[in-house]
Design goal:
Rossmann fold, alpha/beta, 2 domains, 10 strands, five-stranded parallel β-sheet, globular, Heat Shock Protein 90, about 300 residues, single chain, about 20% strand, about 45% helix
Length: about 300
C-alpha cells in the first residue's frame, strides 16, 4: 500500500475528475482515487475509512448530493475527521454557510484557480498528516493521564505544541474530539502570537509551500528565540479548562470564533472556529488576545 497522501475526487463529471487528477499528478506526491457519485464514494470510504486523507467533493450530484455525503461522513467515528474540500458552482452565501455548518473544511468555486486548488489540497493534507501523528501519540499512556487534575507547561516550538497537545488531550473524556482544537490553539500561540506571523503572511507562505521554513527561521531570530507559551490545565468536578498565554501582541479574535464565509476560499483560518464549535464547550479570549481559555463542561 502506498504511503502517499490519498486524495479521493468525487464528481459526476468525468472531465472534471480528469482535470483535477492531472493537476495533482503533475504536483506529485499523491495517491489519487475517484468516484462518479456520492453513493460510490461513501461505499469506498466506509469500506476503508482509514485509507483516505482528503476528500474533494462536488456539491451538486445526482442520486446523492455532496451535502448528503458530508452528513453521512459526520456520523462516522473515523470519516468525520477527514478533511473535506467542497467543489461548487454555487456562489451564494447561504450555500457556503450550509456547507461550513455541515462540516466542510474548505470551499472551491467552479471554475477553480489551479494555484488555489493545489494550495488548499497541500494545506488539507498537511493538517491530516499532523492529525494522524497526534492520534498515534494519543495511544500511549492515555489511562494514567485521566488522573491528572492540575498541570502547567511551557513550550516554544510548533513540534512541542503538537506533542504537548496530544499529551494534555489524554486528560479529557474524548481525546480525539479535543486534540484537534487544542492543537490549533497552541500552534496559533506560537506562529501568530510569539512569532508574529500575520494572517496574510501565512496565506502567502502556504501558497508558496514555505510556511515551515519561515517558522524555523523566526524561531532562530533573536527577537523571537526566547519567547515561550505557557499552558495551564485544570480539572474540576464539573469542567475541564486549559488556559494558553503567549508573549505576542495579541489580535482581534472576534471574527475567528465561528466559520466565516468571507474566508471560505482561504487556505487556512479555521483553527479557532474548530476549537470553539467542535472541540470545547466554549472558547474565550482575554485582554489583548494573547490569552485564551478553552473550557469543556462535564456531565
Amino acid at each position: 500500500m502506498s504511503n502517499l497522501p490519498h486524495v479521493l475526487i468525487v464528481d459526476d463529471e468525468p472531465f472534471n475528475i480528469e482535470i483535477i487528477a492531472e493537476l495533482l499528478s503533475d504536483e506529485g506526491g499523491y495517491q489519487i482515487s475517484s468516484a462518479l457519485d456520492g453513493r460510490e464514494a461513501l461505499k469506498m470510504m466506509e469500506a476503508n475509512p482509514d485509507d483516505f486523507d482528503v476528500i474533494l467533493l462536488d456539491q451538486m450530484m445526482p442520486n446523492m448530493t455532496g451535502m448528503e455525503v458530508l452528513e453521512e461522513m459526520k456520523q462516522h467515528p473515523i470519516l468525520r475527521h477527514c478533511p473535506i474540500i467542497f467543489q461548487t458552482a454555487k456562489r451564494d452565501m447561504s450555500s457556503i454557510v450550509e456547507g461550513l455548518e455541515a462540516g466542510a473544511h474548505y470551499y472551491l468555486t467552479k471554475p477553480f484557480d489551479e494555484g488555489i486548488l493545489l494550495s488548499v489540497v497541500r494545506t488539507a493534507v498537511r493538517e491530516r498528516v499532523e492529525y494522524k501523528r497526534v492520534l498515534a501519540d494519543l495511544d500511549q499512556s492515555q489511562s494514567l493521564m485521566g488522573l491528572l487534575r492540575n498541570a502547567c507547561f511551557e513550550f516554544k516550538t510548533i513540534d512541542e505544541a503538537r506533542r504537548l497537545a496530544s499529551l494534555i488531550s489524554r486528560c479529557f473524556p474524548d481525546p480525539n474530539k479535543v486534540v484537534m482544537g487544542l492543537t490549533e490553539l497552541m500552534v496559533n500561540a506560537v506562529e501568530h502570537g510569539n512569532l508574529a506571523i500575520t494572517y496574510d503572511e501565512k496565506s502567502t507562505l502556504n501558497s508558496q509551500g514555505k510556511w515551515s521554513d519561515e517558522i524555523n527561521k523566526r524561531l532562530a531570530m533573536v527577537e523571537y528565540s526566547d519567547k515561550k507559551v505557557v499552558i495551564q490545565f485544570d480539572c474540576a468536578d464539573d469542567e475541564m479548562m486549559v488556559t494558553i498565554t503567549d508573549e505576542g501582541e495579541g489580535f482581534d479574535w472576534k471574527t475567528y470564533m465561528d466559520f466565516d464565509p468571507g474566508r471560505v476560499m482561504d487556505n487556512h483560518g479555521r483553527g479557532i472556529a474548530i476549537a470553539n464549535t467542535m472541540s470545547f464547550s466554549e472558547v474565550n479570549y482575554r485582554g489583548k488576545g494573547n490569552v485564551v481559555c478553552a473550557q469543556l463542561n462535564l456531565p
